[in-house]
Amino acid sequence: xxxxxLDVRRARAALPRMDVAAxxxxxxxxxxxxxxxxxAVLITHLTNIRYLTGFTGSAALLLVTPDSALLVTDGRYxxxxxxxxxxxxxxxxxxxxxxxxVQRQALVGASAAHGRLGLEAEQVxxxxxxxxxxxxxxxxxxxxxHRVVEARRAVKDEGEVARIELACAIADAALASMxxxxxxGPTEAGFASELDGAMRRLGADDVSFETIVASGPNGSRPHxxxxxxxxxxxxxxxxxxxxLVDGYHSDMTxxxxxxxxxxxxxxxxxxxxxVRASQAAGVAAVAPGVPTGDVDRACREVIVExxxxxxxVHGTGHGVGLDIHEDPRVPGTGDATLDxxxxxxxxxxxxxxxxxxxxxxxxxxxxxxxxxxxxxxxxS
Length: 380
Ligand code: ZN
Ligand code: ZN
Fold this sequence. Notes:
By secondary structure, the protein is α+β, with helices and mostly antiparallel strands. It has 2 domains: 20-153, Creatinase/prolidase N-terminal domain (Creatine Amidinohydrolase, Chain A, domain 1); 158-373, Creatinase/methionine aminopeptidase superfamily (Creatine Amidinohydrolase), CATH 3.90.230. The chain is built from 11 helices and 19 strands. The strands form 6 sheets. A 6-stranded mixed beta sheet has the order 4-3-2-1-5-6, sandwiched between helices. A 3-stranded antiparallel beta sheet has the order 7-10-11. It has a 3-stranded antiparallel beta sheet with strand order 8-9-12, covered by helices on one side. α8 packs across α9 (188-202) and α10 packs antiparallel against α11 (292-305). The longest helix is centred in the middle third of the chain and has 21 residues, at 158-178. The chain is elongated and about 70 Å long. The protein binds zinc ion (2 copies). One zinc ion binds next to loops.
């Protein structure tokens, strides 16, 4: 989408509504099917609380039982929480606890009748677990749950895909408007801030993560942060960035050649060709039912064949949604398989100290027919 025909305000107004209440009732219906089975779960991870209730504040706990849900937060969020729960249309009882003691009392009371209480094993610290066991819930059995909400979040509905797609369109338009400025020789940091500003002006809520601009020799460090280095002719510039819409992220990397392809040396040109071919092979492999390891292999084979297997130093991709990095990972552990509604990145790279780096990354949604690429900036 070009800058001229991207009307973010209108696009936002047309976004499909998200059925947040169905997420909560879906989890409630599945509680006794969890392994180990739970009579209730205490959700502590804020992104998961947002997903299940629509609440976006920075402090909350959510107790989910088969037929009720209790959101406990503090006085700062009294008005906001009530408004967000109502807007999301979720039947959640809201308890405002001005002190931790009041919050604890509410949760202890609501969980007392439930024998086995699940905690989010990946989110609860050792200290939290000790406190919950000794002080908060001494009379119930605490059991670990593993990525219960994260697994549900991995599959996006139409409303979520539309938000990620709009975030991608904003990033595309921002890059289209700012890329010509590279020829004027900005610093990495200056260009990053121009790009961030363009995304905000276009209507992004924020940037998705700290923008990476890595030029020339800095490009060999995959997560180099923008420095005062002046971008110059013959540089490859790795630009990795995204926009945020309604909590949903986009993620895209393009590697631009300052001065055009003619300004590059033979090694740089080959790096660009190989990574582009690798990335295209990875995207082409994305389809429902495909193990994430196959997508990784499709990318890696092309780079290994070029003799640069050791220079592809990171994973091939990751899920994108309310978090910039979420499930499914590519390659996943075990038998992770792509499903319709998964949104993943495909982002191979080659990093050669002295020569710099090339990475190309798209955000892709898995569809019944295969895939649809949501980031559309040109790769040449
Ligand atoms: Zn990225
Ligand atoms: Zn990424």
